[in-house]
Each structure stands twice: as C-alpha cells, then as structure tokens.
What we know:
Number of strands: 11
Structural class: alpha/beta
Shape: globular
CATH topology of the largest domain: Adenylosuccinate Synthetase, Chain A, domain 1
Distance between the termini: 43 Å
Largest sheet: 7 strands, parallel
Strand content: 15-25%
Oligomer: single chain
Number of helices: 10
Helix content: 25-40%
CATH class of the largest domain: Alpha Beta
Amino acid sequence: MNTATRAAYADVLVGLQYGDEGKARVVDHLAGEYDVIARFNGGANAGHTIVTPDGTLRLRQVPSGVLHPGVALYIGSGCVIGLQQLASEIEMLAGQGINLAGRLTISDRCPIVQPVHFLSDRQDGGQIGTTGNGIGPCYADLAARMRGGERSACQIRDLLLDEGSAFERMARLAAQDSDEELSIFMDGMRQAWRVVKPFVTDNPAALLERVERGARVLFEGAQSVMLDVVQGAQPWVTSSHTLPSYAFVGGDLPCQYHRKTIGVAKAIVSRVGSGPLPTELGAERSEAYCARAGREGWGRADEAVR
Length: 306
C-alpha cells in the first residue's frame, strides 16, 4: 500500500532556525489531530513552554501534547533522560491534575544522564553555551562506549536489569566528585527512578505496534535544524541530530510511515548562547535594534499567543 494512503502515518515537526521558534505552541495546537506525540532527540536541555488559560507549563522532557487527555506520549531511544528532571515534571503535572499513567511511554534504550555528565558539562559546556544539564557528555559516552576499561554509558534498560549494579557503576564513574555531593545526587536519582520506572517499556516496537493499529504520530523535534550536531556550525551545536530524517531513528519507527514534515520559523531570528548568528546586524546596530525591540515589544512570546 502506498504510504500516502495509509490510515496510519507519522509527521515530523522541527524548528527551522536556532530554537525558540515556538514549536511547543504549534504542537499543542496540532495535537488533537494525532494519537501520539513523540520525542526523538535531546533531553532536559530542550525547554518547551505552553501558555494555557490556567497558566504556563514549562516542559523539558515530556512531549508537548500533555494537555490533550486522549493523546499518548512517547519518548524514543534517541533521547537522553535526566531522571530527576523527568520525575519532577511527572510530579508537577500530576499536581496540576494531569495524570500520565497509561499515556506516557519511555523507551528503555534511552541513555541516562549520570552525575559525571553534569560535572563535565558544567566545567566545559559554558564555553559553547550549553545548558549544563549533562546532555552532551551523555551522548559522548554512548558513542565512546568505554572509559578506563569500564562501560561508560548507562541506559534505562540497565536499571531494569539490575538497578543496584547500574547505580554503583554510575557512582564509580563520578568518583572525582565530593563524596557528600555525590551521595546526595545518587539518592536523588534513586528516588526519581521510582517515579519514572512505571512508564518504561522494554518493547522496542512499542510505537510501531501502535501505528500498525492505525495510530497517527507527530514527532516533536527538540532544538532546531541549524543546531544539528553534524550540519550545524561546530562547536556551537547541540549534541544530537535535529533533522527531520532522524525522527525515525531516534523515534523508533520505520521511515515508511512518514507523511509530511512541518517546519516552524519566526520572523525575528534569534539564538541562545555564544554561537554565531550570520544575519546579526552587529555592534551598535544590534544594540540599537534590540533596545527599540524591547521598548516596542517586537517578537515577544506574549504577542504570539494573543
């Protein structure tokens, strides 16, 4: 059967610039047309903001379709998981009456951000404007595989297999931290794991099986295409692939289900961090423009949702 006539399909939504294009707002607007909203890259470095009549939701790891009770949520194997941040989001949403039980599914192939990754990112990441959440070092360890004769990456499935051994290995790899600080961090991770564990699946075909039953999927990209780890301007890039084609690798779905790609852009381009912005006016012209934009409210987020 031609993919264009399938009852089930997967669309991909990505930012076309350097982030902050308002992707979460667009996802929230479109979510009612889909059965599953899925994340395929990034981690807690990707802040998504949804403005509602009852207030503002700030999400970093949970997909943006949370406000639609009939929509399932999936975090694919291309994402890295900060256990404490994710547990905090789940509990925050529960406190607002949004129960994710039976809705949120997390691939057990996702790598876990370890204490050593936070330490490394805070020491070195500031030079390229990272968020300091350990995302880059986590992806790096997954690719490096070994450090000092020991496996460096830890995936969620390692916790499912033997959480005691997995947490011990994470503590050993971060042995350069102060004992007190590391102990507090590890205790926090263990508590967070108890919150996250019920949402984890060990079925690598979990999303595929939904699609084979007719589900319509929207992949929600983190960061944006100009920050892709390969196609972006090194070293001022994110640590994962942000292009639409990667959605089917990091999102655990065959690409035959792709229907269309949705690109999100904004009129006034901006970027966070110290990386180059080729279209920047520069020097005094930039200062004058930003001062006027601030006075007149050009490009404010609250304007976009009026």
